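CORE FACILITY INTAKE
Project code: CF-77B
Contact: R.S. (postdoc)
Sample description: multi-component assembly, two entities in total
Requested service: structural model of the whole complex
Turnaround: standard
Below are the sequence entries exactly as provided by the requester. Do not edit them.
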Amino acid sequence: MFARLHKNKTAQLVLGLLFGICFGFLLQKGGATSYNVIEGQLLLTDFTVLKLMLSAVIVGMAGFHLMKHFGLVRSHAAEGSIGSNVIGGLIFGVGFALLGFCPGTVAGAVGTGALDALFGGMIGLLIGAGIFAELYPRLRTRTLVWGKFPAVTVPEFLHLNLWVTVVLMEVFMIGFLLVLGYLGL
Amino acid sequence: MIDFLTQATWSPYVAGAGIGVLSCLAFLLSDRPIGCSTAFVKARGLISRIIDREKTEKKEYYQEIIPQVDWAFMIIPGIVIGAFVSSLLSGQFRILWVPSLWGEAFGYDPVPRVIVALAGGILLGLGSRWAGGCTSGHGINGSIQLSLASMITACCFFAGGIATALLIFRVIGA
């Protein structure tokens, strides 16, 4: 439906900036551009980040699959592997805790005046991305494809109907947030 | 309305729901999941290209993720601007070298904090590209699409992050 818009490079450049601005605004308002909040989540003393992420997924999952049902959007879900997603995810996790931000929130923190995010985080991310570009030819054919996951999506993995999976996931996530609230976390 | 925009923080449920709507709009209008780590590859590629154009263009990774200023690149300057505007409206903008949680455990000298942040940034850059996405690309937008790989990746982000944070603050800084 928006195929022409998707191909319009100038419009997409502007949209990218606008999506970024709105995302940064919401991250700051949600508290996720603060080192104390993110590190507090990793120390399990402040659950703001999890509440923010789960709320986004609860709304987004329903919206995305409704739009997909009507042919307005397509899925970008790709095959994964232990070598890529688990190893990469754990390396990311260590960096996440050392820096106290992730690649999006570090940019948000810079916007709020955090200089450790600018001179440590942003510079580090540029260096890390460069290291990966160097390693990529060696990783691509071996490590990154090692231990491929048996399915691309959760319903395929569980052999469940798409909408049953969506409803189960929504119930699980909302239930999780209610339990967090009930426990006063 | 103005009061709402100048509030110091919003409930994480409200801000999160807003991010969910935003993610849907990005799929609809741009046919893309909102991700943040690709921009750093593009920026890095653009810097490398200034230093040595031929060598950069030969690199396999930069042939897949082309270093150019495009949608995925613009997300990052956008986030900086959006968070800047929001923090001004919230009255939360302040120039800061050392956050208080770190300062109370390890002191307010900026040098150790920046060194650790730099090490963290390097691992974050490496790990996000290794896993093919970040907390937003995998954690939020991959999960929205019910991607199995994204949900496993998000669990690994937090498993690695929680273990490391506990080590830093409960063992080393205790």
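Facility notes:
- Residues 78-151 of chain A form one domain.
- Residues 115-140 of chain A form the longest helix (26 residues).
Invoice: internal transfer
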